[in-house]
Design brief:
Blueprint (H helix, E strand, L loop, with lengths): L4 E4 L14 E2 L6 E3 L18 E2 L4 E7 L6 E8 L10 E7 L4 E7 L6 E9 L2 E10 L20 H11 L12 H4 L9 H11 L12
Parallel strand pairs: 4-10
Antiparallel strand pairs: 1-7, 2-3, 3-5, 5-8, 6-7, 6-9, 9-10
Helix pairs in contact: 1-3
């Protein structure tokens, strides 16, 4: 088993759902979290069900349906810091010794917060879930993530515009109101829509939300 640190500065992250039982079925096969009471959460907002770790804790996984020599990657990054030219994700890579591979994943010492862990075999994503490291007592709000998919993009702009226009299906219960307050004034209105549009378009002065 090989554990190697690699830093990727520009790898896109797609947030996909996985079973709350900590098992996800794909063409490559299931991944099972075998550690007691460490079922990862399906959403970064679901902090009540997240396991809490400290740096260097171990979490045991069973990966099946792979072949000897297959590369299994455990990919980690902090919630709200999707990999870009200024942020990083960490890849721990393991080599399968057979069709069933037990892996004891070591929680990285990269600060406290909420983290996304993904497991991939080749190009196949097998599993993903969120966990906490250290003392994280309050949910983390990704400002701008109006539709709660853990990304900030044009879909959030559409959801916010429709909420402000009072479209059916886009009322306050269907969006994240805290994330929608992109200018930080405690209200959700057209000013937030403007701030979000400029953030997505990468205007100078709108790099970080809420806009100060």
């Amino acid at each position: 088993m090989m554990r190697k640190k690699m830093v990727a500065s520009a790898l896109a992250v797609a947030v996909l759902s996985f079973a709350a039982t900590a098992m996800a079925e794909t063409g490559t096969g299931p991944v099972e979290n075998r550690s007691t009471n460490t079922v990862f959460a399906t959403s970064p907002q679901d902090t009540n069900s997240m396991p809490v770790f400290q740096a260097d804790d171990e979490v045991s996984f069973i990966v099946t349906g792979v072949s000897e020599g297959d590369q299994i990657a455990f990919i980690t990054h902090k919630q709200g810091e999707e990999p870009s030219n200024t942020t990083v994700q960490y890849i721990d890579q393991y080599t399968a010794s057979g069709s069933t591979q037990k892996i004891n994943y070591i929680v990285r010492d990269i600060g406290d917060g909420i983290f996304l862990l993904k497991i991939k075999a080749g190009e196949n994503e097998l599993y993903q879930g969120y966990y906490k490291v250290g003392d994280v007592s309050a949910p983390t709000v990704l400002v701008g993530d109006v539709n709660n998919d853990s990304k900030v993009n044009s879909k959030d702009l559409t959801a916010l515009a429709r909420n402000i226009a009072k479209w059916i299906g886009y009322d306050d219960s269907n969006i994240n109101k805290d994330a929608a307050d992109t200018n930080g004034d405690g209200k959700v209105n057209s000013k937030d829509l403007t701030a979000l549009a400029r953030h997505i378009a990468k205007w100078i002065g709108y790099e970080t939300l809420p806009v100060k």
